[in-house]
Amino acid sequence: SNSRMVIRNCSSFLIKRNGQTYSTEPNNLKSKNSFRFNGLVHKKTVGVQPAADGKGVVVVLKKRAGQHKPAGSYEKITINKNSRATLNSLRHIIRKNKYRKDLRMA
Q1: How many angstroms separate the Cα of 79 from the Cα of each of 30, 57, 73, 98?
Q2: pLDDT over 70 (residue 104)
Q3: Would you say residue 105 has pLDDT above 70?
Q4: Burial class (CB in 10 A: 0-12, 13-18, 19+), 19
Q5: What is the DSSP string of 39-61?
Q6: Which domains does the chain have, with CATH numbers?
Q7: What are the CA-CA distances from residue 77 to residues 51, 58, 59, 63, 81 (Å)?
Q8: Does residue 100 contact residue 90 with C-beta atoms inside 8 Å?
Q9: 29: helix, strand or coil
Q10: Which range has the top average pLDDT, 9-13, 23-27, 69-73?
């Protein structure tokens, strides 16, 4: 997409170290500067953050609807389980909702 071409080399989220280019943008699961993991250009993105109370994780989903209202375009789901159950829940959210199949192993 055109927005990817604009932010590919010049973005406030870019960090260049040791010959690698990383990105600190929200909803970038691997922190790589690539189209696949970019959290800004896709209409649907997935992000994982630690919960505010320190127990569990918060899964942040960017919804396709409501793109013109950025505050309401994110859905947050808190998962407070053990590590294996958390991974299964995350896989279930991505696969069963047919969210983004290319991110299932990220």
Answers
A1: 20, 5, 20, 19
A2: no
A3: no
A4: exposed
A5: SSS-SSEEEEEE-TTSSSEEEEE
A6: 1-42 (no CATH), 44-106 (3.30.390.110)
A7: 10, 6, 5, 13, 13
A8: no
A9: coil
A10: 23-27
Contact (CB, 8 A) for 77 and 61: yes
pTM, two decimals, is: 0.71
Q: What are the structure tokens assigned to 64, written together?
A: 């396709």
What is the SS3 assignment for 26?
Answer: coil
**Most confident segment among 42-46, 87-91, 99-103:** 87-91
